[in-house]
Amino acid sequence: MAERQPDIPVEQAGYIIQDYQMMATYLNSSRGLNFDLHKQKVTIAEFALLISILGGNHKRKKVGVRSIWNGLRDFKILQDAFRVFSSA
C-alpha cells in the first residue's frame, strides 16, 4: 500500500496517529533521530518508514520485506508495552 498509495492517511491502513507518535518517540530517544512528535497528519509512507527503521533499515537502501517484517514485530512489542505502562 505504501508504494501504490503513499499519500493516504495512516488511519486508512488501520493505525492511529498515536502509533506514529509512540514509534517516533522511541526512535528519537533510542536511535538519536529527529521525527516530529506533534505531527497530526501522517501518511502511510511516513509510517512505513518508521516501521522499517524499527526493523533495522538505516534509510540508505530501499525499504525491504525483512525490515518491514521485523519492524512490525517490534512495533507490536512497543505497542503492547505502551498499553501496559499507560494503564498502570
Describe this structure in words.
- By secondary structure, the chain is mainly α.
- It has one domain (10-87).
- 56% of the residues lie in helices and 0% in strands.
- The protein is built from 3 helices and no strands.
Number of domains: 1
β-strand number: 0
Q: Enumerate the spans where pLDDT stays under 50 for 5 or more consecutive residues.
A: none
- What helical percentage do the residues reach? 55-70%
Biggest sheet, in brief? none
In round numbers, the mean pLDDT is 90
C-alpha geometry = globular
Structural class comes to mainly alpha
Order of helices and strands: HHH
Strand content: under 5%
Distance between the termini: 35 Å
| Number of helical elements | 3
Radius of gyration: 12 Å
Layout of strands and helices, then pairs:
Elements (H helix, E strand, L loop, with lengths): L16 H15 L12 H11 L10 H23 L1
Helix pairs in contact: 1-2, 2-3
Short description:
The chain is mainly α. Helix content is 56%, strand content 0%. It has one domain.
Features:
88 residues, mainly alpha, 56% helix, globular
